[in-house]
Design brief:
Elements: H1 3-17, H2 30-39, H3 45-58, H4 62-67, H5 70-77, H6 83-100, H7 109-113, H8 120-129, H9 140-148, H10 157-167, H11 173-186, H12 201-206
Helix pairs in contact: 1-11, 5-6, 9-10, 9-11
């Protein structure tokens, strides 16, 4: 079976399993989505959603956030982990948005990646889910599944992203990003699918 054939099986199966995809993180606007994605690093979406309402009630825009003391931000986001680094980045990127982008979240990768705490993956997620631009952010779930199914060499998340973009139609990238994450969390976990008896449906179909 070729990689392209495997990709077609994956896409059709996931479209049936997850015909709609709800964004797990709760947000009010592109700015609050950016903050939520930043907080989700090494933290569950559930925990982020528990923390952000209090933060966003104080400030749901760059000007309001930049005015908050860093320690106040840190106090609120502490349950998300890495609170000092994340608080510093949130404060700094809010000020940068005011100084360089007129208080708006930029809609291009280069500008997003220039913000404190925003790497390629985070920028891709913002472009995809806040602005609807086709991207294919690769997280640990997607990297693991793509490697397990032989869709990529698995040498790096960067290579996995390139390989998946070649295999799947551009119009499917945004929904596949969430579909793969959901499938990795619910059906094809890191410790499962090691034997024929424990394989998920897609692992069975692709072996």
């Amino acid at each position: 079976m070729t990689k392209k054939q495997k990709a077609d099986i994956v896409r059709k199966y996931l479209d049936k399993l997850y015909p709609t995809q709800e964004i797990p993180l709760k947000f009010r606007n592109p700015f609050t989505f950016l903050i939520a994605v930043l907080l989700s690093a090494q933290c569950t979406d559930k925990r982020v959603n528990e923390v952000t309402p209090k933060l966003f009630d104080l400030a749901d825009n760059p000007r309001g956030m930049a005015a908050l003391p860093v320690e106040k931000i840190r106090e609120i986001i502490r349950p998300c982990g890495l609170s000092q680094t994340k608080a510093n980045n949130i404060s700094k990127l809010s000020k940068t948005l005011l100084e360089k982008f007129g208080g708006a979240v930029p809609q291009d990768m280069k500008s997003l990646e220039s913000l404190a705490g925003v790497g390629h993956k985070t920028a891709s997620v913002i472009m995809m889910q806040a602005f609807g631009v086709p991207t294919f952010p690769v997280d640990t779930h997607i990297h693991r599944l793509a490697t397990r199914w032989g869709l990529t060499s698995g040498k790096s998340v960067e290579q996995t992203e390139k390989d998946l973009k070649k295999l799947f139609p551009k119009e499917s990238w945004n929904r596949l990003h969430l579909q793969l994450i959901f499938y990795g969390r619910e059906h094809c976990k890191a410790h499962t699918c090691k034997t024929p008896e424990t394989r998920c449906e897609l692992c069975k179909m692709l072996k």
